[in-house]
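Support case: user asked for a sample of complex input and structure output to validate their parser. Sending the pair below.
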Amino acid sequence: MATRSVIPFGPQHPVLPEPVHLDLVVEDERVVEAIPQIGFVHRGLEKLVQKRDFNQFVYVAERVCGICSFGHGYGYASATEKLMGIEIPRRAEYLRVILEELSRCHSHLLWLGLLADAFGFEALFNHCWRLRETVLDIFQRTCGARIILSITIVGGMAHDISDEDLKWVCEQLEGLKREYREIVDTMFNDVTVRERLCGVGYISFEDALELSMVGPFAKGSGIEHDMRTTGYGAYGDLEHFEPIISTECDCYARCKVRCEEVFQSIDIIEELVKKIPHDGIGGKPKAKVVPEGQSLVMIEQPRGEAFYYVRGNGTKNLDRFRMRTPTSQNLGGLVRALQGVDLADVPMIILTIDPCISCTER
Amino acid sequence: MYTTEYVTIPLGELLTRVQTFKYEGLRFVQMAAETTAQGMDLFYTFYDEVNDKAITLDIYDIDETSEVPSIQNMYFTAFSYENETHDLFGVKFVNMKLDFGGHFFNVAVDSPMTVITPEQKAEREKAAKVAAAKAAKARKAAEEKSAAEADAAAAAKIAAVEAGKSAASVGDVADPAAAAAPASAAAADAGDAGADAPAASAPSADDRAAKMEAKLAAMDPEKAAKVRAALAARAAKEAK
């Protein structure tokens, strides 16, 4: 009979950029059960909404996480605008979506670099992070910052991005697309990569549905759920949008989805830049208080569907801000995906889920 | 664009609603809690992919001792939210499939999200102080009312004493002992100003004056002054 033992994985581990702990119950080399524990970087940022007024809090929301920063500000601002009954100009909506798609490119390039580094493909890691710099340079020129952009405000955008800059963004992305295609083709045709990823961390379509999984983790199992299909923001103005899915249900499928999403994001940005209207960017609302009531907004972050909820009490401070990030939703899938796998595959599986612990703990 | 709907339900209806949603194929989105002055609010969100609708179940004002049924049997992914809500808000869940026993979030303080802000604390303390001041004012008003009634009774006694004294001085020539009797009866029975029951042993005028002084000393100074003035006026009138 196999010996059963518990191996602690994390909170500090070479493949984990953020602290999460897993107790891996193993029989010989096979994982029987994985028990997660989080809370190492819990900051109580949701509670801070009671001390900062609704205009200030957008900057707090952006600081929940460095990778999903823009999306959090976007989600919070949208939920607050919805509660206050503010309709922002279309140009502001377009700019937000363009920046959100750039954030997706930045997040996926960062993730691919980390994955490559985890299985020793360091040349790929270097190239991914070099290409990511292109996106960060775009942020720097258009927003004045590289990570925490602070361009979103409740009621619109803090400043405009000129048409010349948007044209320059498209030129930069054209170059990025060409180079990224070469990298992706190299990666997916590499024997070692296929060996490490194909058939590993299998999550069936039924399980993904049962566990309400979101983002590339779910799309890699054939689930077509993507909030962008609902047409929020400027997504409704796209000629055509179809989520990228894969039906192999393994780590390789999840990687393919993420890599293809970068190309899709670049296409979306190019289309929106061509169509962007010139009706202003809005500004801070005249109202000094948020009315009583509640509102929620769901957007598609790089890791999947994110949920933002605000509750107003008739003062300048909100009663409650709730942020549910994709990683929280995918923890059930992570636990399921790790059952029955080889111990050596655990880092790969965790990385293909791309957990964001800062977002999860807030 | 998706639509949103908020439904307020009692805690007892939660499982039935969630079972219906599961049967209808809704996707579980999230659950969360919030502390209020009245207790705790819970809200569960589900997403209807067919109609692109987000439905939120609001459960308001559950108290700290309430036991919330777990929905993990229907939506396993709720385990992270239920354990989080337990660890951060102290909400008690029952029948949890995966229960971390308070060790899912590695936080140093129990239920850190229930700690209220200084502003909230100040607001609640201010409200408590206002309520206490209101109660104290009501209590003082009641006391003053009863004191005024007692004063009125005392004034009536004094009047009775003075009346007895006048009667005694009128009959002093004939029978001093008989004249003192009505005054003594008036002093003995405060409620009986008529003093129709004569008594054999009556206190002297000095005793009565001393008793009156003691009463006046115990009174509110303003009222005592008024009583003194009234007595003096009466005495002057009678002297005329």
